[in-house]
Every structure is written in structure tokens, then in C-alpha cells.
Amino acid sequence: MACAVTHTASIRRRNTFAAWSLLLALLTGLSPALAAAPAPSLPDDAALEAAGAVIGEIRIIRHDIFDTTIAEEDAPVYRAANALHRRTREPVVRRLLLVEPGMAYSRRLLDETERLLRAQNYLREADIRPVRFADGRVDLVVETWDAWTLNPGISGSRSGGASSFGFELEDSNLLGTGAELTLSRDTDSERDENALSYRNEHLFGRWNGLDAELRDNSDGRGWALALGQPFHALDTRRAWGASVDRLTLVESFYSRGEEVAEYRQRNNDIEAWWGRSAGLRNGRVTRWQFGLREQSRDFLPALDPAMAGPVPDDRHLVGPWIGIERIQDDWEEQVNLDQIGSTEDVLLGLRWTARLGWADTAFGSDRDALWYEAGISRGFRLPAGSLLRTEAWLDGRLEDGSARDLSLGGRARYYRRTGDKRLFYADLETVLGHALDLDGYVTLGGDNGLRGYPERWAGGEGFSRLSLEQRYYTDAYLWRIFRVGGAVFMDVGRTWGDDPLGAPNPGTLADVGFGLRLGNTRSAFARVIHVDLAFPLDGDPSLKRVELVIEARREF
Questions:
Q1: Are 349 and 330 spatial neighbours (Cβ–Cβ below 8 Å)?
Q2: Which helix (H) or strand (E) holds 45?
């Protein structure tokens, strides 16, 4: 099971580094100190930490998208792609590092830095290793592999009986700076969207960034602006943020996948917050946040009399809030889990968050209300290399002693290796609602897990869905871009509670199918292309006998 076993950091790095040190010195021009490293005497991570080693020189090696030094990628098309792509600049990589010369050597910090580098969509892989230890100082090499970030072209997908098309001019690593600039036009079943956005997490200095967007849609327009410094690492001590988001749009009610009524909506959100943490302590981190939020939702009837329907009640909530987040530092590297042939960083440690806020008429709210949000997740290592990932969430309000817009959800994902290139996957999700706002009802269909049905096929106050898959991974590597896999699957689900328009509940829905998976290992955009044929099983004569699904997603 060589291609499917867990790639843990300790196993990968216990090999000696003699060949690496010599090769790097010859090929990349390392300093004489690094080149002269007597790697056979290089201690392992535990010994380096026990010896009180400090970090010396840090060498950055940045790789292009394709490696034209190997025969498979030594072709004009790959050289042209490298020439068109602006490689990530060295200062961009260096500012992401959580270590620097003079710091105590820590394998934990190197692992966290690798995860932080891989989390950038313009980098598809990262590796950090010691290459020399002498006089109490350990020299490091940081290697990164770029992803293709320029997206000038036409996109499209088909899911749940609906097609979407778009044109994008996007670069998520603008001139190698790590900034993202996007100009797009997308058309789907709900609206035509035109957007211009810019995002740079380090515009005003390290981890002091900006995120801005302008939107001009067929049913409204809006803009958003956010400034802030996040908790970017486990040991980060301070964070802050401020944001404004305004948008007008038209929302719809659906019955059996067809739009039957609509209303107009105006959103106005303003928020500012500040956070503090004592950092990582005994493998856990606790973060406190304090903020002030204004959330406004105004609703108007549809302009088209033929689409007139119920209109939600306006909401205007203003007031302070307090939040807490706690994370257990327990991660695992996996391959062939939700991606194909790429390193996946999986948080198994317990993580939970909670926010509690008070909206008061004294602050300008239209009511007094206590609002709350909470979430929790945990992963479990099971026998035979199996993995279970669980999460749950809760949000709602308390008004005049009664619960309003209460939503409780949970999800469990189970992974079991069934062969060298096979994996069984089960995904169970349940959402329950109580006293929901009219704009808070849920739908179930091809857009959220029932692949044999149109989008928003059934509605209600909650739903349950179970998806089972047998996944297959191959060694095929089409054009040195796409890793090839496949799946056979079954989806079962149903909605619960009242439909907002009183439509009858269709009961239990089910489908079976099979599909092709193309894992795009070189791109910063959607990593897995799905091509599925799904067959609904409930016999509804209004359904197609087979549903073709073509879409690009972040996961298998």
C-alpha cells in the first residue's frame, strides 16, 4: 500500500541528507558552508532539539510549474508554460516562514511552516529540511513548487440539471507577489455576476492585508472591503479585522428545482474586532476575540407580479460580541484522500469556536436579541489506517425568551483504505432547523450532494444526506497535468419540516452513479474535475433518467 499510506513528517525526514546536500550545492549554488555539510553525521530532529541547536542559514529554492530537467517534461509546451508564469518571488516565500536565523530549532515549527506554505493556492507543494549541523547551528533548505495561477479563459459546469458559464481573467499570484486580481463574468441559474476583486494579505506589511471586491450583477450590485491581520499561526498573539459588505440581490423560492417565487434583498454588514492569544501552550492554543457588528437585512416584494410570494421580515442587529477559539495541535499528512497525488494536511486535533453577541435597541437594533454561533471538529485515527473526521455547528438567536432561526448541523466523513489504489468513503450530513427566518430555509438536490437530481429539488427546515463512494486512484498522469481517478457512488437523502411555500415533501431520494476524476496537480484553481453519470431511483416521471454532472471542485 505504498501509494496510499500516510506520509508522516517524521518518516519522511529520518533519511540522511548527504546526497541532497551535495546535489543542492552543485545545482543551486548553495554557500560553501552548506555545500560542505558532512551529512552522515547530521542528527535527527529529536537530537537537534535536545542539543539546543539554533537555526543558521535558510536557503530558499523555488521551482517552476514543470521540471524541464526530466525527460517527461522537457518539451516546448512545458517550457512555454514556465516562461509565461512568473515564479513566486523569494521575499514572498520568506515572509511566510515561521522560523528565522537565531531561533531554536523546532521540527514542529518547520511542519507548521510547510502547512502554511501549502495553504497558499499559488504553491502546490513545500518541503523544509536541515542540511548541515555544525557548531550548534543547523542550516535549512526550504523548497517550494509553484502552481499555475493565470486563468484567462472560459469556464463552465453542469450540476443538478443546471449549467453555468463564465469568463475569467484571474491571477492568484500577480507578478509573483502572492496577490490575487480577478475580473470575472459568470452566468448560472440564478443571476449573471460581474466582479472585480483584489486580495493581498501582506499589502501593508507582513500579514496586514486587504480584500476588496466590486459586484455588478443582473439582480443587483454591491461592494466589499476588509482589512486585517489574522491569527496566521498557532503561536500568533494578536489579530484584528474590520470589514464592510453591501449587496443588493434577488433571492428565489424553488419547488422541484423550478423557481416559483422571489423577493428582493438588501444586505449591509459592518464589523470590527480585535483578538488576543497567549500562543501555543502544551500543544493547545486559546484565542479570545472581541468585536462590534451591525447586520442589516431588508426585504422587498418581487418586481415581477408573476413571481410574487412571501417576503421575509426585515432584521437589523447591532451590538458587541465576544468569541473564543481553541485548537489542539495534532496534524497528519495524507495522500489520495480528498485529492489525487497531492499532499493533504489534515487537522485531527480538537478545534472548537464560539461567539456570543448582544443586539440592543439602544445601539440602533430593531429588537433586543442574544445571538450565538458555535462549531466543533475532531479527527480520529482508526484501526487499519482508517480515518474519521467529524464536525458540528450551531447558530441562532434568542428573542423574548424564545429560540429564533435556530440551526443545528453535523457531518461525519469516514475513509478506509481497501487496497493499494482504492478507498471507501462515507459522508453523512444532517441539518435541523427551528423557527427559521423565511430566508433561512434549506434545500436539497444536485447542488449539495444528490447528484442524480436537479438543484434545490426539495425544501424544508432541515435535511439528512448520506453519500457512499468507492474511490479509485491510478498511476496515469495525463500530459503531466492530470492525475486520473474514478468513483462509483450512491446518494440517499431527504428533507424535514415544512417547505416555505407548502410544497409536499417528496420523501426519500436516492441515486447511484459512476464518474471520472481528473486531479489537476499543477493549477491553483479547482483541484479535481468531476465527470459523473448519476441515475435517480425514486421513479418521479419529471426527472431525467440520467443526470450528467461536469464540475470542478476542491475535493474528490
A1: yes
A2: helix 45-50
pLDDT at 5 over 90: no
User: In one letter, which amino acid is 452?
Assistant: G
Helix (H) or strand (E) holding 82: helix 76-84
* Cα atoms in the Cβ-side hemisphere of radius 13 Å centred on 126: 24
Enter the C-alpha cell of residue 276. 488576543
Q: Edge-to-edge strand order for the sheet containing 123-134?
A: 54-63, 137-146, 123-134
- Distance from chain centroid for Cα 43: 36
Q: Which amino acid is at 214?
A: L
Nearest to 515 by CA among 159, 2, 154: 159
Query: What is the C-alpha separation between 318 and 297, in angstroms, rounded?
Result: 12
The three grid cell numbers given for residue 411, joined into one nine-digit string: 457531518
Residues 6+ apart with CB under 8 A from 555: 338, 339, 527, 528
Residues ≥6 apart with Cβ < 8 Å to 191: 217, 218, 219, 249, 250
Report helix, strand or coil for 108: helix
Q: What is the pLDDT of residues 80-112, one digit of tens each?
A: 999 999 999 999 999 999 999 999 999 999 999
**C-alpha span between 413 and 411 (Å, rounded):** 7
Q: For residues 21 and 38, what is the distance between their CA atoms, to the nearest angstrom?
A: 9
